[in-house]
Amino acid sequence: MAKRVLIADDEPNIVTSLEFLMEQAGMEVRVARDGQEAIDLAESFRPDLILLDVMMPVLNGYEVCQRLKSDPKLCHVRVLILSAKGRDVEVAKGRELGADGYITKPFSTRELVSKVRALLGQ
Amino acid sequence: MSPSSNRLFAVLRLPLLALVAVLAVAAIVWSDLEAPERAALAAVLTGPRIAMIGLLTVSALALLGVYQYRLAEATRQPALRIAESVQLVARSNPAHRLMQQGNSDLCAIAEAVNELAEQRERLLVDVETSVAQAKAGVEEEKNRFAALISELDQSVLVCNRDGRILLYNAAVSALLAPSSQPDAMQALGLGRSVFGVIDRSLILHAVEAIEGQGARGERESVHFVTATADGRRLRVRVAPVFGGASHPTPPGTGEEPAVRTMTGFVLLLTDVTEEVEIDARSVALFQDLVEGTRAALASIRAAVETLIENPDLDTPRRARFTSIVQVEAVRLSERLDMLSTDVSERLRERWPLAEMRGVDLLSLASRRIERREGLATRLETIDPDLWLRVDSFTLVQALSSLAGRLHEEFGVREVRFRLQAGGAHAQLDVAWHGVPMSSETAFTWQNDAFTLGGEDSPLSLAQVMERHGGEAWYQRDVPTQTNYFRLLLPLASEHAAARARPRRPNRPEFYDFDLFHHSGATDAFDARRLTELTYTVFDTETTGLDPANGDEIISIGATRIVNGRMLQAETFESLVDPKRGISPASIEVHGITPDLLVGQPGIDQILPRFWRFAEDTVLVGHNAAFDMRFLQLKEAQTGVKFRQPVLDTLLLAAVVNPSEASQSLETIAGRLGVTIIGRHTALGDALATAEVFLGLIPLLAAQGIHTLGEARAASQKTFYARLKY
Hints:
The complex is a heterodimer.
Chain A: E1 4-8, H1 12-24, E2 28-32, H2 35-45, E3 49-52, H3 61-70, E4 78-83, H4 88-96, E5 101-104, H5 109-119
Parallel strand pairs in A: 1-2, 1-3, 3-4, 4-5
Helix pairs in contact in A: 2-3
Chain B: H1 3-32, H2 35-45, H3 49-92, H4 104-151, E1 155-160, E2 165-168, H5 170-176, H6 182-187, H7 200-216, E3 222-227, E4 233-242, E5 262-271, H8 273-309, H9 315-350, E6 354-357, H10 358-373, E7 376-382, E8 387-390, H11 392-410, E9 414-422, E10 425-433, H12 439-447, E11 449-452, E12 455-460, H13 461-468, E13 471-477, E14 482-490, H14 494-499, E15 535-542, E16 553-562, E17 565-575, H15 584-590, H16 594-597, H17 603-613, E18 618-621, H18 624-633, H19 635-638, E19 646-648, H20 649-656, H21 665-672, H22 682-702, H23 708-717
Parallel strand pairs in B: 7-9, 15-18, 18-19
Antiparallel strand pairs in B: 1-2, 1-5, 3-4, 4-5, 6-8, 9-10, 10-14, 11-12, 13-14, 15-16, 16-17
C-alpha cells in the first residue's frame, strides 16, 4: 500500500518540487499551506510522514510538531522538519520537541528521498 | 648677637664683673685715702710685688671664669635637651615626655612641660575626633565613588595635568598590566606618569585638542585608538577635569562662562581589539557572500533563461545547460552552509552581552523571584563552572515573569532551576511540579510581553531568547511529572571567561586630589619641598658588610611615599640569588639562609625592576651610603645606574638631634613613636624607615629645612657624614 506523505509549507515554489518528488517516489501526497491546516489534514488524511516547514502562518512548524507528538492518535506520524532555519539551537529545539529528522534548506533531492524512505522503513 | 659670641660673653661676665668690682672698691678706697697713705700704698703695690699681685689677680679671675663656664654648661646641656624634646613633642610625637634632668629648676620646667604635653595630647585627640566625625560624611561619598570606579568594567584612569596617575581601577590593571607581563605592572601606579603606559604624544595631542575646544566653548571629549605593547588595540577617551569656577554661571544671564583651566583629565579605556577584528571579518564575510552568490546566480540565470528562450534545443545541449543549473545550485548551497555558521557566530559576538557565571545569574533570579513573586526557588543540578554570555537584566526579568505567571495561573509554589552544558550551549531549565501545560499555552506565554508586578515590559521570552541567539521551548518529563521550560543560552568564550575573573585588588588608594595642583617634574629635585616629593624608601639585606670585597645583595625591600603618605598597596620586595655563600654573622641578623635563595632571580633581573620601581623618585634609606655602595658596584654588571638624589634617615636624625648619641633605627623610631614590625626583613626595615622619615620631615621644617637641597646640605654637615664606605 502506498505510504501517505503530508507536505506542510507555505511557499508554492518549493511545494511544487516536493510534490512531484514524493509522487515520483510512489507516495500519496497532500499539501497544507499553514500550521492549522497541517493539524487538520493530519487528523483527516492520516499521513505516515509529514514534511514540515517551520516558518508558516497561524501555527509554526514547532507547534505543529509538539502537538502531533503529544496527541496519542497522531504521535506515530514521522516528522521530518525541512527548514531554512539552520542554526544549531533551532535544530536542537526541533529534536527536543520530538522531530524524527531535520533537513536544512537548500537540500539535495536525492538525500531527501532517501531520508524519507528510511523514516518510512523502506 | 650670635650664639657663640653670646657664650663668650657669658663666660667672661663674672670675672669681668669681679674685676670691675675690685677696681671700684680700689678706686673708692683710693679716693678716701690721704696723700701720705696713697704714697705708702703705691709703694707697696709697685715694685717686685706687682708681678705677684698681677699673677694672683689673673689666676683668681681665670678660676672664676672656669667656674662660671662649668656652671653654665651644667645648665646648658639639659636646657638644650629640654628644648629639643619640647620641639619633638610639639612637632612630631605628642606622646613623648621629658626626662627630669639637671637641677631642680630644670626639673620643674620639665614637669610643667609634661603637664602641658598631656593637656595638648588630650586636646589633639579631641580635635581629631571632631574632625573625624566631620569627615565621616565626606568619606562615605568618597567610598561610594571608589566603589563605583573600582567595580566598573570600564577602565578608568584619572591624571593631573602633567600626567601623574591619581586614581585607577582594577579594570585598568587587567587591561594594561595583565599578570602575564610583570614589568608592565611596575609602570602602572599612583603618582607615576601615565606616559609610561600610554603614548605621550597621543595624550598631549588630545589634551591640546580639548583645550582648544574649551577656548571655543565647545564641550566634546576626544578619543583616539592606540596599541599596547602586546599588540592589543585600545580606544582611549580623554575627558577634561576643570578646576577654578566655584559656581556655575546661571544660564540666561548673558554672562560669559568664566574661562576654566584644565587641572587634569580622565582616561576611559576600552579594548577594541576584538571589535576591530570582528568588524573586519564580518565585512570580509559579507563581501564574500555577495560576490560568490552573484557569480553562481549569474550562471544559473543565464542557463535557465537560455532553456526558456529555446524550447527546441537539442538534447546534448539541453543536458549541458541543465547540468550547469544543477552544479551551480549545489555549489551555492555548499558555500552558504559554510558561511552561515561563521556569520551566525560573528553576529552573536557583536551583541553587547556580558560574561557571567551561571550560578550567579540563577542566584540573582532566585532572589528576585523569592522577593517579588513570593515563590520558593531551588537550585537543582547546577554546573558551577559554566560561564554564560547574557544580558542578565532582561533574562532575570524573563525568568521572574515566567515564575510569577506560573504562580498566578497554575498555583505553582516552587520553581527549580537546572543548568548544564549541552553541546555549544548552556541548557537552563525552569522546572516545576504539577499538571501539564498545553503546548498552545506554552507558545502563547513565550510570545507574550512580560508582566512584572504591574509594570509592563515590551519584551517577550521569545524576544529575549532571540537577542541571545538562543531558543526556548516547553517540555514535560512524564515519569517524574515535571514540567519545564528549557532555555538554550550562549556560553562565554574560553578567553573571555578567563579574563572575566580578574584579580580583585584593594579599592584604589584614594588620593588627596590636591596633587592636581602640583606642577610637574620639570623642576630640579633640589628646589622641591620635602613634603611634595615622591620617595622610594628602601633597604637591602646582604651577605656581609663588605661590598668592595665580594659581598652581595640578597634581598631588596621598598615602599613609596607620595604626597606625604606611605602607599600600602605599592611595595617592592624581592629575594636575590647572590651566587655565593652568606656569612653566619649576617644570617644571625636577617635570618635568610642560603636555601631560601636557591632559584631566586639574580641581581641582573632584580635591579632593573627595582630601578623601574624607583624611577623618578628620591631614594631614602637608613645608613643609605651602605646600600648605595652596593648598588653602585653593580652598575657595570647590570647596566643600571641610580642617579636620583638620596636621603639618609641616619644623617637627618643627626641633623635634628645632634646631642643624641645613638642613631640606630630602633632608637630614632622609639623617639618618634614609630612601631617596628618585621625588623631585619628588607621590606620591614623599609617600612620602618619610611615612617621614621615621615616623622623627621616636620622636625626638619622646625629647623628651617624645607627643600631637598637644604636637607642634603644639612646632612652633609653632620658628624656621621664623615664615615664613608
